[in-house]
Q: What sequence folds into this?
DNA sequence: ACAATGATAGTT
DNA sequence: ACTATCATTGTA
């Protein structure tokens, strides 16, 4: 029996994360996404493959969750089906990318906080070369930075994580031992700041704040 | 320590 | 209509 897809193709259908997989609590999905791949087909650019190294969970009944006060125009995608995106603008200048979790009607999501990029996006190459202090592994080390690097904005809000959308997720290539993942408190929030709902890959140099 | 920068949600 | 807030980041 042979597969009908090219094994050299950057797209491997068997490993793509499907909506059903995301139909679980955000506190389960957030650590499960560590080590998974985020793929982004840049508009007028290359396909960028990356590894998720830091996530945070936002849950129903969680005062820090954007869905806490009910559905609105901004957060509507959080109440949509799992395996879709929720993208919002923060501080007027950065965007943040989330993976929507749990069934439609339940407002919960996982914030993607940091990535390790396999390749440097072309629009950042010149900038990286000009600045000697700039480090390649820090290009996507933060929720705002990764959206800038992968050209993610509100146009990608509420889209299905799927190759047709130009952005999708793939399962881990190798299992990760739980001891290699650190669980700690979330960053940049004042409400429910004590909830230990942030996870990151201990060995990664691309974590926003180790 | 703080400015940049704009949408949003809550309050008059 | 006004205002405080904001799941951030780069520079000083």
A:
């Amino acid at each position: 029996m042979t597969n009908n897809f090219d094994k050299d193709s950057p797209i491997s259908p068997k490993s793509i994360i499907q909506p059903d997989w995301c139909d679980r609590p955000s506190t389960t999905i957030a650590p499960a996404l560590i080590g998974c791949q985020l793929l982004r087909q840049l508009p007028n650019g290359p396909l960028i493959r990356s590894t998720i190294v830091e996530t945070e969970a936002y849950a129903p009944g969680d005062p820090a969750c954007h869905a806490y006060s009910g559905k609105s125009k901004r957060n509507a995608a959080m109440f949509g089906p799992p395996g879709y995106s929720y993208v919002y603008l923060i501080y007027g200048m950065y965007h943040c990318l989330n993976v929507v979790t749990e069934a439609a009607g339940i407002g919960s999501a996982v914030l993607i906080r940091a990535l390790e990029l396999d390749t440097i996006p072309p629009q950042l190459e010149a900038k990286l070369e000009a600045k000697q202090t700039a480090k390649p592994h820090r290009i996507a080390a933060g929720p705002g930075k990764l959206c800038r690097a992968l050209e993610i904005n509100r146009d990608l809000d509420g889209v299905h994580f799927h190759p047709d959308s130009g952005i999708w997720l793939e399962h881990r290539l190798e299992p990760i031992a739980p001891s290699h993942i650190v669980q700690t408190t979330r960053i940049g929030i004042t409400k429910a700041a004590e909830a230990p709902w942030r996870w990151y890959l201990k060995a990664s140099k691309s974590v926003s704040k180790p």
Summary: The CA atoms of residues 85 and 158 of chain A lie 5 Å apart.
